[in-house]
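Worked example 2:
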Amino acid sequence: MNSATPIRKEADISRVKKYLAGNKRDLFFFVLGINTGIRAGDLLKLRVKDLKYTVVGDQIPIIEEKTGKQNYIIINKPVYKTFQEYLREYGPDDNDYIFFSRKGSRQENHLHIFSMSRIVKQWFRDLNMPGNWGCHSMRKTWGYQQRVKYGVDWSIICRRYNHSNPAITMRYLGITSDEISQICMNEI
């Protein structure tokens, strides 16, 4: 079980965005992760051409590496805006990896989970934000914010995550047996 911490406070999300403003690649990774709920491993393999010609509302099909199931990256306004900033900053070729490694060619080397996880952990250390941070924090932040801020039912989030077991989604969202017991006290 991955016990990565979701970002619970909107102010903390804003802090991370502000901190990353000078690094368009890392900022885009963060914004894409917290706005799509897609696993980091699948995001890291994206090439510029996969998103370059999209507009707000587009759905980009992907096959999840872990599950082999189809999912979609949906382009919302923050994703679109941040990607446009990324494109202006780097002027990449269509075949470049979006999340390129600084070692070797952008068309041959993308960041891998281990490296990106180290980078993510460093963001939170630099911001002095305690927690168990990693690449999975973006995915969990998406679900947590959907549930708490927007009131999205956990079963819909479970479907978006492509989880085979609802218990996994419940753990992601921090739904505890105490919370379930507490609702049984509601009088009807």
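The two ends are 36 Å apart (CA to CA). The chain has one domain: 10-177.
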